[in-house]
Amino acid sequence: AISNAVAMAKVVRERRVRIVHARSRAPAWSAFAAARMTKTPFVTTFHGIYNARSSLKRFYNSVMARGDLIIANSQYTRDHVIKQYNIDPARVIAIPRGVDLAQFDPDRIATNDRAALRAQWGLAEDDPRTVLIIPARLTRWKGHLVLLDAIKHVEAKRPGALKLIIAGDPQSRRG
What we know:
Elements: H1 2-14, E1 20-22, H2 25-38, E2 42-46, H3 55-61, E3 69-72, H4 75-85, E4 92-94, H5 111-120, E5 130-135, H6 144-157, E6 162-167
Parallel strand pairs: 1-2, 2-3, 3-4, 5-6
Helix pairs in contact: 1-2
């Protein structure tokens, strides 16, 4: 870990990096050390609540609370981080995940583009099915199985009413 921090500090200096950002605990330790070695602001992102069943695990997780600025993925996460790590609320900002719905407004999508997507998805222009799209990395914890279970219940009452499109990449991960 020290060698990683030293190598990272070298990159920070050579490339005149102005902010070091960590979004995962293991690399955050090296990033934190490199940021401190180079006096570069350190920013972290909490993507959720980390389990801390032991003092060792709590210490391991604490690197994410050491950012000069801490980004939380929701107000719930922000409140949890402030309370768990006794952090000045001014250092923690909530930036909720989300989608800019204006970007997906059907009126903003060209008719040709819409027709091409429908054809790609195997949908005729007059197909009455409700289309569900789950755009997320393909991993168990993103909720794909929950969605499939929900669809099973809808299909039991309204057979053929839905078309599911899973848009994601496993990014070389399993599970």
